[in-house]
Write a structure and sequence with these properties.
Dna Ligase, domain 1; about 45% helix; 5 domains; globular; alpha+beta; 25 helices; about 850 residues; D-amino Acid Aminotransferase, Chain A, domain 1
Length: about 850
């Protein structure tokens, strides 16, 4: 059967260039003695002969420049053009004859085969290209085989394949396609085997998915399969999650179809413990052969396993580092919640060394303000464990007494006066301090003046933050929770809107920011050349272009100048909103790419007018309130009206207060930027941005040395080890509550925390049910603004936390999943405004989900199911 166009499946010459990634892998498996169904390769030489004889190459390449990965419709347009060329082309006679002879050499009369695409850029350790080309099952007869081979060749030019290669910089002229023709295993069950745990990255476990019938229903995501976690060493099944399997892929006379599973097969396990152990053993054998964690498709036919495909796992989550979470004080409890939620990552040294003492002083000051006494209850209230922020509580007999004598009597005053104190004293002082230092000629300040300005503005930041704990961040969730109880118990009827519907549709700073962005895009639409440039140019390139005076070609300079001015004014008004409380993280005014991506979305006609959405929510709110009020009387009506008033008043205030956390950050960054430049000039650091990796005492020591005119100590050696430690710690999952307890003071700690303590099972992650709805879509994991240009319309936004600065991405998202946050957090409110599902406070989403993975977000159940298919 050996021929230029044909190779036996196990032929040693079956390498990547001749038979593609899938074919080369199957040859390797077969030669290692693994149970791979026999067959043959149609080599890349056959594909090239087909292309050459039909003069297709130049016509394909001439169509490709129109393809833009950022605009999926262009990919499909190019694909249709190329597919039409393949449909009209004829298979060369010598190629057809070689395939005919090879097929005739398989056992049986017109044997049933699977015809699988195998590209030369496929199943590689760094890029899997999984699902980019087509497979055809249950093919029999030579005419069916020839047709399937030709359709496989054409699938090299599907829209998804073209886009994938463009995104990863693969040369479109160099790619080629082989085809594997393989005896079809008449599978009664099939699935995917991973030689590592995809959820947590553990290499000592195997993850298996399994369902009835052929494997296409599992691979194509048409069925929720069983999921098993198996210990590699013992073969013991650690976890078994039996899904309700609705459909199976079955063979027809020709081809396949999905049909409903019989009722008695839907809830039973596909694999026994022994079969799972046998699959795990095969998986380890394949992993040892490749020396890499592997993604393996398998089938079971007549009680025997067959291996259909194996490729490296290209996006396995990193295992969390083994870290000891040692308590600073064994007598205290430590939690992550409230304003700590705005610090999802380990803190950088400068921020940590400034925040902890300053925030503790500010919190002591605000508690004393309302209690009239300085209390021991909140000594060292803020602290860090492994550089992650925590707040601590302790309840000795003395502190219980202080609580009863001072805190409890002060609670009424805090509830009544907390927000006025923030609005009338703290916020105006914070704003004035930021304005006063921002107005100074910062380059002319001495190093000690720069440090003094930094300290003064940052003290105003922590005064503002700690006041929010007893005002908007404390009162608002309480008022919303109280109203929800009253509404659900006294007014809600079957079929009514949920309580949040009565609280949405109010204007706030994030809403005004969104409306202003939409109006900015609307103004661009009137300038055709400008609009076309913004739509077709990557956001980072636009951002870089706006930093200079060079007008892009084809745009009127006056239009470009006006656009720069309007966008700059927008950033001045709203660009201070924080992504992360640590001031080492950039602001939207520093990294405007997310805003530009949203503008491009609006320019393309996608994304709803936020003013119209706000009005629609307001109308729904009024309708829900009126319906509820009509059915409550007397004391119930009073309770409803009172709690509704509180919740409606405080909700927008909380959003404003969170948005204004960053008021002083632009001037802080300017002061630090200038101080960093002075340190570079003095030889203290090699880059101005490295100042964030010094501790405050080290920066103060360097400033004092500079002021004395003495030679300064070189601190460059401190920076890299600290960055390495920070990057290692960032992969950790800080416990939400230390020491871990089911109850704290008799209360479930979930009440206080922004991270759910419920553990995931199999390929399911649990969190808070924050906004209802169910969506299956591609996940996009964004850890910060540096990743935002990866977001595409319809993606599931997966993030550590969402602050108001993240809001522009909600216009693009089909659902939201976060590590930190709860049902009353900013993210849940915005998700409900956009009517998209949200699961918040998972604790682990950004580590266990990888970009490009298909996930199912169930916002009502609070679950995220991870597809095992890349």
């Amino acid at each position: 059967m050996e021929h230029e166009y044909i190779l036996t499946l196990s032929n040693p010459r079956a390498d990547l260039n001749r038979v593609g990634g899938k074919g080369a892998s199957l040859a390797r498996l077969l030669n290692a003695g693994l149970p791979v169904p026999d067959g043959f390769h149609v080599t890349t030489a056959a594909y090239r002969k087909f292309i050459c004889k039909n003069n297709l190459q130049d016509r394909i390449l001439s169509a490709l420049p129109l393809a833009d990965p950022a605009q999926p419709n262009t990919l499909e347009t190019v694909s249709k053009t190329v597919q039409a060329l393949f449909t009209q082309a004829q298979m060369p006679p010598d190629v057809a004859e070689a395939i005919t002879r090879a097929y005739a050499g398989l056992p049986g009369d017109q044997p049933v085969v699977a015809v699988r695409s195998s590209a030369t850029a496929e199943d590689l350790p760094e890029l899997s290209f999984a699902g980019q080309q087509d497979t055809y099952l249950n093919i029999h007869g030579i005419m069916g085989v020839l047709d399937a081979v030709k359709r496989c060749w054409a699938s090299l030019w599907t829209g998804r394949a073209i886009g994938y290669r463009l995104q990863h910089g693969i040369d479109q002229q160099a790619v080629s396609l082989a085809v594997v023709v393989q005896l079809l295993a008449p599978a009664e069950a099939a699935g995917v085997l991973f030689t590592a745990n995809l959820v947590d990255g553990r290499r000592d476990q195997v993850m298996i998915t399994a369902s009835w019938g052929l494997g296409e229903a599992v691979v194509g995501g048409l069925v929720t399969p069983d999921t098993l976690i198996v210990d590699k060493l013992t073969g013991h099944v650690i976890k078994r999650e039996i899904a309700e399997k609705q459909v199976m892929t079955v063979r027809l006379e020709s081809g396949t179809r999905e049909q409903a599973l019989p009722e008695d097969m839907r809830r039973i396990s596909v694999l026994s413990d022994g079969e799972a152990a046998e699959l795990a053993r095969l998986g380890q054998q394949i992993e040892q052969l490749y020396g890499l964690p592997m993604d393996i498709e398998w089938a079971r036919a007549e009680k025997k396993f067959a291996i259909l495909q194996a490729r490296p796992i290209t996006a396995l989550p990193e295992t969390a580092p083994q870290i000891e979470w040692r308590l600073p004080d064994a007598k205290k409890q430590y939690m992550r919640g409230s304003i700590v939620d705005f610090m999802p990552d380990p803190l950088t040294p400068l921020f940590e060394s400034m925040f902890i003492p300053s925030a503790n002083k500010s919190f002591d000051k605000v508690v004393t303000q309302f209690c009239g006494h300085q209390l021991d209850l909140f000594v060292d209230y803020f602290t860090t464990i492994n550089h992650y922020a925590y707040f601590s509580v302790n309840y000795s007999a003395r502190q219980w007494l202080q609580t009863l004598l001072y805190m409890m009597p002060a609670m009424k005053k805090m509830i009544r006066m907390g927000i006025p104190y923030w609005q009338d004293e703290i916020l105006p002082y914070y704003r004035a301090t930021a304005i006063r230092w921002g107005a100074k000629n910062i380059p002319s300040l001495t190093p000690s003046e720069l440090l003094a300005g930094l300290s003064e503005v940052f003290t105003a930041v922590t005064d503002h933050l700690t006041t929010l704990q007893i005002s908007t961040l404390g009162i608002t969730p309480g008022s919303e929770g109280l109203f929800t109880v009253v509404y659900d118990k006294l007014a809600k009827r079957s079929g009514d809107a949920a309580a949040p519907a009565c609280l949405l549709g109010f204007e706030s700073i994030p809403i005004r920011s969104e409306i202003a962005l939409y109006e900015l895009a609307g103004g661009c639409k009137k300038q055709a050349a400008l609009s076309a440039y913004l739509c077709s140019t990557p956001a980072r390139e636009i951002s870089a272009r706006m930093q200079d005076d060079d007008t892009p070609q084809g745009i009127d300079p006056s239009d470009w100048t006006a656009w720069q001015t309007h966008f700059h004014n927008y950033l001045e008004q709203f660009g201070y909103s924080i992504y992360n409380l640590d001031f080492a993280s950039p602001l939207p005014m520093d990294e405007p790419a997310p805003l530009l991506e949203t503008i491009k979305l609006y320019l393309s006609g996608q994304g709803k007018n936020p003013s119209e959405r706000l009005q629609s929510l307001a109308n729904r709110r009024e309708a829900a309130v009126q319906a509820a009020q009509a059915r409550v009387k007397g004391l119930k009506a009073w309770a409803f009206k009172k709690t509704l008033g509180w919740a409606q008043r405080y909700g927008p205030l909380r959003e404003d207060s969170i948005a204004e956390i960053g008021l002083g950050y632009p001037v802080i960054n300017k002061l630090l930027g200038e101080l960093g430049r002075r340190f570079v000039q003095a030889g203290i650091l090699s880059n101005a941005g490295d100042i964030y990796w010094l501790e405050y005492s080290e920066a103060a020591q360097a400033v004092a040395t500079l002021e004395r005119g003495e030679s300064c100590q070189d601190m460059t050696g401190l920076v890299q080890p600290r960055k390495s430690t920070w990057n290692m710690l960032k992969r950790a999952a800080p416990p939400a509550h230390l020491p871990a307890k089911a109850k704290f003071l008799g209360i479930n700690p979930d009440v206080f925390l922004g991270v759910s303590t419920k553990q995931g099972e199999g390929n399911t992650i649990h969190g808070y049910a924050a906004s209802p709805g169910k969506v299956t879509a591609t996940a996009r994991v964004l850890t910060g603004p540096e990743d935002f240009d990866q977001m595409r319309p319809g993606d599931v936004l997966v993030a550590p936390i969402t602050t108001p600065a993240w809001t522009p991405l909600f216009a693009m998202a089909s659902a939201v999943v976060t590590d930190v946050g709860g049902p009353l957090s900013h993210g849940s409110i915005v998700a409900r405004e956009y009517a998209i599902p949200a699961v918040l406070g998972t604790g682990v989403a950004t580590r266990f989900i990888h970009s490009g993975q298909v996930v199912t977000v169930d916002g009502a159940a609070g679950t995220v199911r991870l597809s095992p298919v890349e």
